[in-house]
Design goal:
Maf protein; seven-stranded mixed sheet; alpha/beta; two-stranded parallel sheet; 7 helices; 33% helix; single chain
Length: 239
């Protein structure tokens, strides 16, 4: 790819934006920060776990100084796109404007075949605007009640976008994981629809898997890998 980012030059951008973040949030070079536009601590941990040891790390809304964090939340644009890609770009572009560093955002959908693709892009608010993970899961299980195994197929899809700090370029990375929906939730992490979804070829629900395995086969993990490969290619550490 012709497009490249000089790591030292970009680190200068990060240092100029350092006042936007809590003291100590910015690590020393050659560690390279990206802003992940989300207030979801689970998601930030998942990104950082995947990228651990490669020199790239992700800061979230929690890492912004309090006044900027509040302003960012107060002025947050609605996620009113009609595709995962559109919503991801809304978030990454806004995050780049807030943080002043290159920003990543993802949008994930849960597409249940027997429900005509629902909840789809509305996976996070399937049971209502103020709902939680449990309410969303229970509504999916209720709507599939009595369906046989062959009619419980579904897919997670994820789109990650990377927006440069000046919003001049957007790059997109997609991942999908197909599987089936259980009749009742399993234990383990209770993130999203993980406790009711079993990926094709596996017996454990996503919630029961070690994070290392889930990150290899999940929709987000597959999109992570594409983002990782891209960053390793375009970020150049000149000696």
């Amino acid at each position: 790819m012709d497009f490249k980012i000089d790591a030292a030059d970009y680190f200068g951008v990060i240092k100029r934006a350092e006042a936007n973040f809590n003291p100590g949030a910015i690590r020393e070079y050659p560690n390279i920060a990206f802003f992940l536009y989300t207030g979801n601590a689970d998601k930030i941990d998942e990104f950082n776990h995947f990228f651990d040891g490669c020199g790239f790390y992700f800061l979230g809304l929690k890492d912004l100084v309090p006044q900027l964090r509040k302003a960012a939340k107060d002025n947050e644009p609605p996620e009113n796109g009609d595709t995962l890609s559109a919503n991801s770009i809304i978030k990454s572009s806004y995050g780049a404007g807030v943080s002043k560093i290159a920003t990543v955002a993802d949008d994930t959908g849960f597409f249940v075949d027997a429900l005509g693709g629902a909840p789809g892009i509305y996976a996070g608010r399937y049971a209502g605007e103020k709902c939680d993970y449990e309410a969303n899961r229970l509504l999916v299980l209720k709507n599939l009640d009595g369906r046989p195994e062959g009619e419980r197929t579904a897919a997670f899809r994820c789109v990650i976008t990377l927006c440069l700090e000046d919003a001049s370029k957007n790059f997109e990375f997609e991942g999908e994981a197909r599987g089936r929906i259980l009749h009742e939730k399993r234990g383990g992490n209770q993130f999203g629809y993980d406790p009711i979804f079993v990926a094709d070829g596996y017996k454990e629900a996503f919630s029961e898997m070690p994070l290392e395995l889930k990150n290899k086969i999940s929709h987000r993990g597959r999109a992570f890998q594409k983002l990782y490969d891209f960053l390793k290619e375009i970020v150049v550490f000149n000696k």
